[in-house]
Amino acid sequence: MNRRPLARNSACTESSFVIAPEGKVAGAVVKDNSMQGGLDVANCMTRAFERWKFPKPRAGQVTVTSPFELEPGHISE
Predict the structure, then answer these.
(1) Domain segments of the chain: what residues?
(2) What is the structure's pLDDT at 70?
(3) How far apart are CA 20 and CA 23, in angstroms?
């Protein structure tokens, strides 16, 4: 995988998820949780993936593997 330099204070992780025939995410996994807050961040990402919806795949079921770059955000109060 070709990676560009990461922004300051960011982390890159690789994740996979399965898009079921009806377009819902049927399963997700974060393959690298070595970033700061690792397991908590991985669990949060997995829950987020499972809420995603896609058009129905032509091939029935599709597995997607992709890198994700995460950067610190700001929480509004």
Answers:
(1) 13-69
(2) 77
(3) 5
